[in-house]
Design goal:
alpha/beta; 37% helix; globular; four-stranded antiparallel β-sheet; 8 helices
Length: 249
């Protein structure tokens, strides 16, 4: 289980996180959703050690850690593929960072994942020669190649068109179902959150706090036209609009 307690971070004396706390069960899919600028990406930066926390504790796997930089895989909005490498070579980077010696075996693992994610035959293509959706699939393979149970997803589908986005949502569910990952994702898309999550945490404007905790027990995959999800979507949007009104006021 991931437990974050009383996490605090300020920039120029302005609090972004002020005693923020939450916990994630193993193999759960939790989604954070909130207004722009509320501190969601700052939370991820603190969790991964990109910036240091001012106060608070982070516990994972029964250990208290300064950050999760060595414990979590992190998939961001941009695919961050290196343009001079092929897709397969990009996906193999985590193994190279671990200095694995048997690169033939690593390549076979990558090819197997490429086949599962619809990238078979594109292993030797450069990123500039394939679509945005294919680049994100490659980034997802690279994330899997870190072999870390905890995965942080920072709006990984937001730059994609609606059709591609829908197809990749099913791959995120596969991360949890087939690879037993514990997932924490940021999104601005309320419908996406309700389709994917076991639990949605609606957060306030900065300093960020949880204003609504929504458990979702409906089996997945879910359908966007489910009346229960439509009602929940309207409820969440109303809470978020209330937060925006508070910021403007």
């Amino acid at each position: 289980m991931l437990t974050v307690a009383h996490l605090t971070k300020q920039f120029n004396a302005a609090p972004v996180l002020d005693g923020f706390s939450f916990s994630l069960p193993r193999n759960g899919f939790t989604v954070l959703i909130g207004p722009s600028g509320c501190g969601k990406t700052t939370l991820f930066d603190v969790l991964t050690g990109v910036v240091s926390k001012d106060a608070g504790t982070i516990r994972w796997g029964g250990r208290t850690l300064a950050h999760l930089g060595a414990e979590a895989a992190y998939m961001q909005q941009k695919d961050l593929l290196l343009p001079w490498l092929s897709l397969a070579e990009n996906a193999m980077l985590p193994a190279r960072l671990r200095r694995e010696k048997n690169l033939i075996t690593v390549r076979k693992r990558v090819e197997s994942l490429f086949a599962r994610l619809g990238l078979a035959g594109f292993e030797d293509h450069r990123p500039a020669t394939v679509s945005g959706g294919m680049r994100q699939r490659c980034a997802l393979v690279r994330t899997l190649m870190f072999h870390r149970e905890l995965t942080l997803l920072d709006e990984p589908l937001s730059a994609l068109d609606a059709i591609t986005r829908r197809s990749l949502q099913s791959l995120l569910l596969m991360l949890q179902r087939d690879f037993q990952r514990t997932l924490l994702m940021i999104t601005h898309d309320v419908e996406e959150a309700l389709l994917l999550a076991d639990r949605v945490l609606v957060v306030s404007a900065a300093p960020m706090r949880i204003i609504q905790d929504i458990p979702l027990a409906t089996p997945k995959p879910r359908k966007p036209d489910d009346p229960t999800l439509i009602a929940l979507k309207e409820s969440v949007l109303a809470r978020l609009e209330g937060e925006l009104d508070h910021v403007v006021a």
